[in-house]
Write a structure and sequence with these properties.
Elements lengths: L1 E2 L3 E6 L2 E6 L2 E6 L2 E6 L6 E4 L21 H24 L5 E4 L3 H4 L1 H10 L5 E3 L15 H19 L5 E2 L8 H9 L4 E2 H12 L9
Parallel strand pairs: 6-7, 7-8, 8-9, 9-10
Antiparallel strand pairs: 1-2, 2-3, 3-4, 4-5
Helix pairs in contact: 1-3, 4-5
Amino acid sequence: MLFGRHRVHLLWLFCRVEREGSRLTGGVLGQPWEAEGVTLDNVLYVEVWGFGQGPNFRDDMAVRNPDLVNEAFRQYAIDFGIERTGRVFQEEDVPLSIALNALFPVQQSEVWNKFRASVPKGPIIAHGMNNSSALLPMGRGLSEQQDYIKKTLDLIEKNTGVRPKGWTSPSVYFNADTFRACASNGIASTRWTRWIRITSRFYKRPKENSS
């Protein structure tokens, strides 16, 4: 991602976007599109997985128990990657939102305090308890999801002083009850409905050249 005064290039998987002023053009998987008045939303997912859980950077080591190699990579990303990302956005004067696991400030308090100091005004989006062993209680009814979301919001507020108004489920894990559970807890927006709204409002194929 390169930040410039007049143009922003984003390279995300197979997506390339160019922005000049309010006009946005690009392509996803080879399909061109264009849009007007689109806001680029930068979100850093600040997560904890629990020992032995999470991405494997060395698949050949994953069969080991304990898998100390992949665990060291994951901890390195937390210890150095998160704070450094916050500094880069601060130096570039680019807004950054934070999708936060509620257990992160509890388990990684020193990292969280340093990171938060670099982006003190970054909006916090609730991102569940953690990304592995404390996910949404799927299939147990609406009330259990309501309780889970409330506990997540309470814990984030206790440790950050901010009660989030946005929600994104950990590990992209949700069902139809999740939307109702979010609404009952005062959540004003979710990452999924926002993308659906943006896509339906702004997506259009460029006009074909009639010549």
